[in-house]
Amino acid sequence: MTSVSLPTFQERGRNTLQRLLDAAERTLESDGLEGATVPAIATRARMSVGNIYKRFRDKDSLLQAVYERFFLDSFAANEFALDPAKWEGASTAELLTTLVSGMIEGYRIRRSLVRALLLYAQTHPDPAFRSHSEQLRLQSLGLFERLLRDRRADIGTRIPSGRSGSW
After folding, report:
1. d(CA 88, CA 112)
2. How many Å apart are CA 7 and CA 56, to the nearest integer?
3. Which of 62, 66, 78, 94 has an alpha carbon within 20 to 30 A of 56's alpha carbon?
4. d(Cα 40, Cα 155) in Å, to the nearest integer?
Protein backbone atom coordinates (compact mmCIF):
# COMPACT_ATOMS: atom_id res chain seq x y z
CA MET A 1 0.00 0.00 0.00
CA THR A 2 2.80 2.40 0.79
CA SER A 3 4.21 2.01 -2.70
CA VAL A 4 1.07 3.37 -4.34
CA SER A 5 0.06 6.07 -1.86
CA LEU A 6 2.01 9.07 -0.73
CA PRO A 7 3.52 8.64 2.74
CA THR A 8 1.58 9.78 5.79
CA PHE A 9 3.49 11.12 8.76
CA GLN A 10 0.77 12.22 11.16
CA GLU A 11 -2.08 10.33 12.76
CA ARG A 12 -4.57 12.62 11.03
CA GLY A 13 -3.08 11.70 7.64
CA ARG A 14 -3.24 7.97 8.43
CA ASN A 15 -6.88 8.35 9.48
CA THR A 16 -7.66 10.23 6.27
CA LEU A 17 -5.97 7.51 4.24
CA GLN A 18 -7.99 4.79 5.97
CA ARG A 19 -11.22 6.75 5.47
CA LEU A 20 -10.42 7.11 1.79
CA LEU A 21 -9.61 3.40 1.38
CA ASP A 22 -12.79 2.47 3.27
CA ALA A 23 -14.83 4.72 0.97
CA ALA A 24 -13.22 3.23 -2.13
CA GLU A 25 -13.92 -0.28 -0.84
CA ARG A 26 -17.57 0.51 -0.11
CA THR A 27 -17.93 2.13 -3.54
CA LEU A 28 -16.48 -0.95 -5.26
CA GLU A 29 -18.82 -3.12 -3.21
CA SER A 30 -21.96 -1.15 -3.99
CA ASP A 31 -21.27 0.20 -7.48
CA GLY A 32 -18.77 -2.26 -8.92
CA LEU A 33 -15.58 -1.47 -10.74
CA GLU A 34 -17.38 0.68 -13.32
CA GLY A 35 -18.98 2.87 -10.66
CA ALA A 36 -15.82 3.36 -8.63
CA THR A 37 -14.99 6.77 -10.02
CA VAL A 38 -12.82 9.26 -8.17
CA PRO A 39 -15.77 11.67 -7.69
CA ALA A 40 -17.96 8.84 -6.32
CA ILE A 41 -15.24 7.75 -3.92
CA ALA A 42 -14.60 11.35 -2.85
CA THR A 43 -18.29 11.88 -2.16
CA ARG A 44 -18.48 8.71 -0.07
CA ALA A 45 -15.33 9.72 1.85
CA ARG A 46 -16.75 13.23 2.35
CA MET A 47 -13.67 14.83 0.89
CA SER A 48 -12.77 16.68 -2.25
CA VAL A 49 -11.42 15.01 -5.38
CA GLY A 50 -8.29 17.10 -4.83
CA ASN A 51 -7.71 15.40 -1.48
CA ILE A 52 -7.67 12.04 -3.20
CA TYR A 53 -5.01 13.27 -5.59
CA LYS A 54 -2.97 14.53 -2.63
CA ARG A 55 -2.73 10.91 -1.49
CA PHE A 56 -2.66 9.02 -4.80
CA ARG A 57 -1.23 9.95 -8.18
CA ASP A 58 -4.30 8.49 -9.96
CA LYS A 59 -7.35 6.25 -9.60
CA ASP A 60 -5.30 3.18 -10.42
CA SER A 61 -2.99 3.79 -7.46
CA LEU A 62 -5.99 4.13 -5.19
CA LEU A 63 -7.53 0.87 -6.44
CA GLN A 64 -4.21 -0.93 -6.08
CA ALA A 65 -4.05 0.21 -2.46
CA VAL A 66 -7.59 -1.05 -1.84
CA TYR A 67 -6.76 -4.39 -3.47
CA GLU A 68 -3.57 -4.82 -1.47
CA ARG A 69 -5.18 -3.87 1.84
CA PHE A 70 -8.09 -6.26 1.29
CA PHE A 71 -5.94 -9.27 0.43
CA LEU A 72 -3.31 -8.55 3.11
CA ASP A 73 -6.10 -8.28 5.71
CA SER A 74 -7.61 -11.51 4.39
CA PHE A 75 -4.23 -13.21 4.64
CA ALA A 76 -3.79 -12.06 8.25
CA ALA A 77 -7.25 -13.39 9.18
CA ASN A 78 -6.54 -16.66 7.39
CA GLU A 79 -3.14 -16.97 9.02
CA PHE A 80 -4.87 -16.77 12.41
CA ALA A 81 -7.71 -19.15 11.47
CA LEU A 82 -5.48 -21.68 9.72
CA ASP A 83 -2.89 -22.00 12.46
CA PRO A 84 -2.31 -25.77 12.71
CA ALA A 85 -2.23 -25.57 16.52
CA LYS A 86 -5.88 -24.45 16.51
CA TRP A 87 -6.88 -27.64 14.69
CA GLU A 88 -5.04 -30.22 16.79
CA GLY A 89 -7.47 -32.93 17.79
CA ALA A 90 -10.05 -31.97 15.13
CA SER A 91 -10.90 -34.56 12.52
CA THR A 92 -10.06 -33.84 8.91
CA ALA A 93 -13.75 -33.95 8.03
CA GLU A 94 -14.53 -31.38 10.75
CA LEU A 95 -11.64 -29.19 9.60
CA LEU A 96 -12.70 -29.28 5.94
CA THR A 97 -16.37 -28.72 6.71
CA THR A 98 -15.60 -25.74 8.92
CA LEU A 99 -13.05 -24.15 6.61
CA VAL A 100 -14.96 -24.61 3.37
CA SER A 101 -18.16 -23.33 4.99
CA GLY A 102 -16.25 -20.32 6.32
CA MET A 103 -14.70 -19.59 2.94
CA ILE A 104 -18.06 -19.79 1.20
CA GLU A 105 -19.68 -17.54 3.81
CA GLY A 106 -16.84 -15.01 3.58
CA TYR A 107 -17.17 -14.80 -0.19
CA ARG A 108 -20.97 -14.67 0.03
CA ILE A 109 -20.89 -11.74 2.43
CA ARG A 110 -18.37 -9.74 0.38
CA ARG A 111 -19.06 -11.16 -3.08
CA SER A 112 -19.61 -7.79 -4.78
CA LEU A 113 -16.34 -6.40 -3.46
CA VAL A 114 -14.40 -9.60 -4.21
CA ARG A 115 -15.86 -9.65 -7.73
CA ALA A 116 -14.84 -6.02 -8.34
CA LEU A 117 -11.33 -6.55 -6.98
CA LEU A 118 -10.78 -9.74 -8.98
CA LEU A 119 -12.06 -8.07 -12.15
CA TYR A 120 -9.75 -5.12 -11.49
CA ALA A 121 -6.72 -7.39 -11.09
CA GLN A 122 -7.55 -9.71 -13.99
CA THR A 123 -8.03 -6.85 -16.44
CA HIS A 124 -5.18 -4.66 -15.23
CA PRO A 125 -2.84 -3.69 -18.09
CA ASP A 126 0.35 -4.09 -16.01
CA PRO A 127 1.60 -7.71 -15.99
CA ALA A 128 3.68 -7.00 -12.87
CA PHE A 129 0.57 -5.95 -10.94
CA ARG A 130 -1.40 -8.94 -12.25
CA SER A 131 1.38 -11.24 -11.03
CA HIS A 132 1.57 -9.48 -7.65
CA SER A 133 -2.19 -9.65 -7.22
CA GLU A 134 -2.17 -13.38 -7.98
CA GLN A 135 0.56 -13.94 -5.37
CA LEU A 136 -1.48 -12.08 -2.74
CA ARG A 137 -4.47 -14.35 -3.40
CA LEU A 138 -2.38 -17.52 -3.43
CA GLN A 139 -0.82 -16.78 -0.03
CA SER A 140 -3.99 -17.85 1.75
CA LEU A 141 -4.27 -21.00 -0.31
CA GLY A 142 -0.73 -21.83 0.79
CA LEU A 143 -1.89 -21.67 4.41
CA PHE A 144 -4.77 -24.01 3.62
CA GLU A 145 -2.38 -26.39 1.86
CA ARG A 146 0.02 -26.32 4.82
CA LEU A 147 -2.80 -27.25 7.16
CA LEU A 148 -3.95 -30.15 4.99
CA ARG A 149 -0.52 -31.48 4.03
CA ASP A 150 -0.13 -33.46 7.25
CA ARG A 151 -3.60 -34.94 6.77
CA ARG A 152 -2.93 -36.39 3.31
CA ALA A 153 -3.67 -39.91 4.47
CA ASP A 154 -7.19 -38.86 5.48
CA ILE A 155 -7.90 -37.25 2.12
CA GLY A 156 -8.27 -39.43 -0.90
CA THR A 157 -10.73 -41.13 -3.12
CA ARG A 158 -12.69 -42.86 -0.40
CA ILE A 159 -16.35 -43.22 -1.23
CA PRO A 160 -18.78 -42.60 1.64
CA SER A 161 -20.87 -45.63 2.57
CA GLY A 162 -24.01 -46.01 0.52
CA ARG A 163 -22.48 -44.57 -2.64
CA SER A 164 -20.96 -46.22 -5.60
CA GLY A 165 -18.91 -44.86 -8.45
CA SER A 166 -16.61 -41.90 -8.26
CA TRP A 167 -17.09 -38.36 -7.03
Report:
1. 34
2. 10
3. 78
4. 48
| CA 31 – CA 115 distance, rounded (Å) | 11
Identity (one letter) of the amino acid at 89?
Answer: G
Contact by Cβ (8 Å): 107, 114: yes
**What would the DSSP string read from start to end of 50-100?**
HHHHHHBSSHHHHHHHHHHHHHHHHHHHHHHHT-GGGGTT--HHHHHHHHH
Report the amino acid identity of residue 77: A
Q: Which one-letter DSSP state was computed for residue 46?
A: T
Phi, psi of 5 (to 5 degrees): -115, 155
How does pLDDT run along the chain (167 residues), one tens digit per residue? 444 665 666 788 789 999 999 999 999 999 999 999 999 999 999 999 999 999 999 999 999 999 999 999 999 999 999 999 999 999 999 999 999 999 899 889 999 999 999 999 999 999 999 999 999 989 988 998 998 888 888 887 554 555 444 44
